[in-house]
Design brief:
mainly alpha
Length: about 200
């Protein structure tokens, strides 16, 4: 079954599906974009022969998948940031009513003011963290040059990690649903760790 999926992964449609899913999940965090990226990485490994132990010769496909997911992530962040920037008093009141959003906005502001954006990178892995950070940065009118470079690093880190999980999971465990399941569990594990770190200690 994964051999047929792997052959389809070579087509351009997979990049469009990944891009749309990753771009939109900043607004709909329930979208399984991470699972989709991992599955695409696993399918790409199956199609290239990586899962059978042969040295893959179509690495640019994997790089294209990483670039596609990272670019869509940054574009989604930028759209959310811009919408929140122009959100006006209604969005400000919504943030003020939420203790979580207020705290996130304050911590993000402090981190960016100190020239550190580790919080932005961590938030990309945490459940719904990307949405909170992007909207809070825009609502607080943080400068784009302080936020977007860290968003780019976060998107690239998340995309590379997710694709690598699928790709190397297929190498180690074979192109099976077990490999995909283990890779997805590793992605969720990273998200749990990122969420814990964000709650428990200040990020500089």
């Amino acid at each position: 079954m994964f051999e047929s999926v792997g052959s389809l992964a070579a087509g351009p449609w997979i990049y469009a599906v990944v891009a749309v899913s990753v771009l939109l999940d900043v607004f709909l965090p329930v979208l399984p974009s991470g699972v989709l990226v991992i599955t695409a990485g696993t399918a790409a490994a199956a199609g290239s022969g990586a899962a059978t132990g042969r040295v893959p010769h179509e690495v640019p496909d994997i790089l294209a998948l990483i670039l596609c997911a990272a670019t869509a992530s940054v574009l989604g962040d930028a759209v959310a940031y811009r919408l929140a920037w122009r959100g006006g008093e209604r969005l400000d009141r919504a943030i003020a009513r939420s203790r979580r959003l207020t705290t996130a906005q304050e911590r993000l502001g402090d981190a960016l003011a100190r020239g550190g954006g580790a919080l932005v990178v961590l938030a990309r892995f945490a459940p719904a963290g990307r949405s909170v950070v992007s909207f809070c940065a825009g609502a607080a009118h943080r400068r784009a040059r302080d936020f977007l470079p860290w968003s780019a690093l976060a998107g690239l880190s998340w995309a590379a990690y997710s694709v690598a999980l699928g790709y190397y999971g297929a190498q180690w465990l074979g192109a099976t649903w077990l490999a995909t399941g283990v890779s997805v569990a590793a992605l969720f594990g990273a998200g749990a760790v990122a969420g814990f770190v964000m709650r428990r200690r200040p990020v500089s």
